[in-house]
Backbone:
């Protein structure tokens, strides 16, 4: 355990969709999600190699799920640093990669931001990084909706700029049903981050 404890990281998954898996692994319930744990092996241009931690690992290491959580909260932001991008920049980058000419001036000015980690794999967990959402809200000078677009990233939309929560929820549910594999779906719900409470609510 002394060799791996600095490599313990977490990821977010949907609670109801992963009940069978959750019966086998240590986890912590969070809203309609679950925090599960991996051992970080390495990161390359092709992705991030991890090993899922099961109940028998805790017995072998003689530690609790709470201790695992504490380590993961310390390690994950360090090993998998967050990345926040304006959606317009993301779209331009995608089109340029496909050799299409597009500039931000061609896009409607609607503030939306993509939050993930630098690997862009299982980056939705960045919403749990200490003080990160508070700092983003301060920069935006706004509370914001969190759209769980997949386990890999979330979208942030300032409240004052957003369409209704019902419309946002319908959009998330449609994308989940038509664009994602079952394993990639994070949630059908939209969350709200409040500057006043410093908390995420459904």
Residues:
């Amino acid at each position: 355990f002394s060799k791996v404890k600095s490599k313990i990281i977490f990821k977010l998954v949907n609670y109801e969709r992963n009940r069978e898996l959750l019966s086998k692994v240590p986890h912590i319930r969070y809203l309609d999600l679950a925090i599960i744990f991996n051992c970080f092996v390495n990161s390359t241009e092709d992705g991030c190699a991890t090993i899922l931690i099961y109940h028998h690992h805790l017995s072998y290491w003689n530690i609790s799920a709470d201790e695992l959580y504490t380590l993961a909260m310390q390690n994950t932001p360090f090993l998998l640093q967050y990345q926040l991008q304006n959606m317009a920049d993301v779209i331009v980058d995608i089109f340029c990669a496909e050799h299409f000419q597009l500039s931000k001036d061609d896009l409607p000015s609607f503030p939306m931001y993509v939050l993930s980690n630098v690997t862009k794999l299982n980056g939705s967990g960045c919403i749990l990084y200490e003080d990160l959402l508070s700092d983003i809200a301060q920069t935006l000078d706004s509370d914001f909706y969190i759209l769980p677009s997949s386990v890999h990233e979330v979208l942030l939309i300032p409240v004052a700029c957003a369409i209704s929560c019902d419309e946002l929820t319908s959009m998330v549910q449609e994308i989940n049903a038509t664009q994602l594999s079952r394993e990639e779906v994070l949630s059908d719900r939209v969350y709200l981050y409040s500057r006043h409470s410093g908390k995420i609510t459904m």
